Amino acid sequence: MAPASPLPMDPIAEAKRQWIAHGWADAADGMAAFSSVMRTHQLMYSRVDAVLKPLGLSYARLELLRLLSFTRGGALPMASASARLQVHPTSVTNVVDRLERDGFLRREAHPTDGRATLVVLTPAGRTLVEAATAALNEQVFAQPGIPPDELRSMTGILARFRRASGDFTDPAPHPEPL
């Protein structure tokens, strides 16, 4: 969250200065970059949370509802939801429990795999996810506070870092149609 009033200096720049002063110049830029990303995450998350909290949502709950809303039938196996959201199955179960309790999704037996459980978006869940997405788009995503060209550059840099860290691989190219 942002401080009540801005600090009179950048604490990450000061940390970098101290890193260099203590003989760690070779690691100072990395420390500053990682610290900047973590602090930026806090600031961005607080903006998103301020929009979602009045709707009774966390970002994790929104992500699951939005994922389900993107599917053809509004349903996915829980294991697929876990993989696509890149979170542990226990975390998905906790989110599903709360969303089911609130009537925004339901569990159903998988029609062809007796071991799997589907999570299915309810009409109330669809209404909520559309309202939450509209609010986030209007209040946060459309005006993120970063110029569009810099935003695209930042996203590309972070995607390259994520790919190099093993977060994802590029899909194989589709063959040209015959």
From TrEMBL:
Q: What is this protein called?
A: MarR family transcriptional regulator
Q: Name one GO molecular function term.
A: DNA-binding transcription factor activity
Which PANTHER family has this protein been placed in?
TRANSCRIPTIONAL REGULATOR, MARR FAMILY, TRANSCRIPTIONAL REPRESSOR MPRA
Q: Does the keyword Cell inner membrane apply?
A: no
**Example GO biological process:** response to stress
Query: Which terms are listed as keywords in the entry?
Result: DNA-binding, Transcription, Transcription regulation
Instruction: Specify the species.
Output: Arthrobacter livingstonensis
Q: Which residues form the HTH marR-type domain?
A: 30-163
Query: Coiled coil: which residue ranges?
Result: none
Alphabetical list of InterPro entries matching this protein: HTH_MarR-typ, MarR/SlyA-like, Tscrpt_reg_MarR-type_CS, WH-like_DNA-bd_sf, WH_DNA-bd_sf
Q: Name one Pfam family in it.
A: MarR
What is this organism's lineage? Bacteria, Bacillati, Actinomycetota, Actinomycetes, Micrococcales
